[in-house]
Amino acid sequence: MSGVKVYVPRDATALALGADAVARAIVETAQRRGLDIELVRNGSRGMFWLEPLVEVQSGNAGARVAYGPVGVHDVAGLFEAGAFDASPSAQDGRRAHALHRGAIEESAWFARQQRLCFARVGITDPLSVEDYVAHGGYRGLRNALVTSGAEIVATVTESGLRGRGGAAFPTGIKWKTVLDAPSGIGNRESGIGRAAKYVVCNADEGDSGTFSDRMLMEGDPLCLIEGMTIAGVAVGATQGYIYLRSEYPHAHRALQAAIANAYAAGWLGADVGGSGRRFDLEVRLGAGAYICGEETSLLDSLEGKRGQVRFKPPLPAIKGLFGRPTVINNVISFASVPTILDRGAAFYRDFGVGRSRGTLPIQLAGNLRRTGLVERAFGLTLRELLEDYGGGSWSGRPIRAVQVGGPLGAYLPESRFDTALDYEAFAAVGAMLGHGGIVAFDDTVDMLEQARYAMEFCAAESCGKCTPCRIGSTRGVEVIDRIRAGIERDGNLVVLNDLCETMRYGSLCALGGLTPDPVVSALRHFPEDFEPRVGAA
């Protein structure tokens, strides 16, 4: 047997479920049987309930046949069923196997998606420049290298791309500010020997229920590298940094290897793509502070300082890293750019609704039967995601609430599940899309405890620079505890609402400013959970 490729993900989720052991078992069994297979460690398809997902391809053009979830104990049976046999005669045996899933692209769950950022994830070898180029990679950068910076920025602006990190600020406006900023701005001493402008990727993905950045960096790191390089070409920056949280060791290794391969292939360095333009890229690890997901705290950390929020103005686009004009965007924001430069602003803008253009990688987590990543154009509803993709609750009980946008996102009840995924639609119901993470809870959830957790989280993660966040979150935990104990409940509810108002409008950054959202939404939609507890002290 020859010409058989076997794909086993090296994604962190798959690894946590035993993918390395499965890959070893497949290779060892094939060697014992004298079978010739090529093992490719790819990214995850995002169907976490089927991980480890093993895909088998006969010949370069053949369709992949998937099996999952595969454990080490399943490997021998797969060989017996002919799963790794390229001959047509083994087809009936393959189909009869209990773990046979057919072609993933033809499954209803996958076929309805609109994958732009994640078009290659799970398909290519993440570290192979040759594979990346063969699947459309670097076409966007090639176009950018023969286009002026102003034209690149105009294309990104026309596409309607907004920041995917949570703030949803128009990406093109940010890039134009950096393009137009004088490169000599800032502290002259700090600029000695440094680049005139910078490109920084915020890869400090710390929100609960979010993993799209990690999946992209592990499954298609060259896409991020290409997007950052395009940004550098657009604004005249020659140095880029990826600020990665230390809790992502697999993404770190993938990025380091992909960057080295991009340098070797001439897509990074002094002569990017033979254009004579320079762009260098490094990965820097953060120590795990949630506050460093805020862009100015991140910049302080990159400069070797304690991560604390900076006062604005000046904006980072004017005075950012080392006092220089800096483009700072999220992983998915940068990963969206190659498609825009390859296929045009109009192509990307045609996806979505209203002012929310393009696609959003949505992460389904919590109490759901089918958790994982779904990339769809803006406009579908929460209910479609929870039922059609998520498959309802894992427990079989009714879904009572969902939190969208991380630990500081609002809690939405079932009556809000028909809200469309659209930045403005979510704002209208007092919520935010944020990074696209959705965590589902069934009807056993205690919403007072969830509200308390938000305050406790803020107290633990506050950088301490401003009083409303530093002190307000600690007092918030105390007030909620008094409400739970039935101590002057009505009066403490007034205090809690006043405290939330102070934090919302008095905090220096979004950590303190958004902490009231889960608290106030829990109070508004689930008031019964804030009644005194029997036996509470």
UniProtKB/TrEMBL annotation:
It holds the Pfam family Complex1_51K. PROSITE patterns: COMPLEX1_51K_1, COMPLEX1_51K_2. Coiled coil: none annotated. Its cofactor is FMN. Residues 448-493 form the NADH-ubiquinone oxidoreductase 51kDa subunit iron-sulphur binding domain. CDD domains: TRX_Fd_FDH_beta. Keywords: 4Fe-4S, Iron, Iron-sulfur, Metal-binding. Signal peptide: none annotated. Belongs to the complex I 51 kDa subunit family. This is NADH-quinone oxidoreductase subunit F.
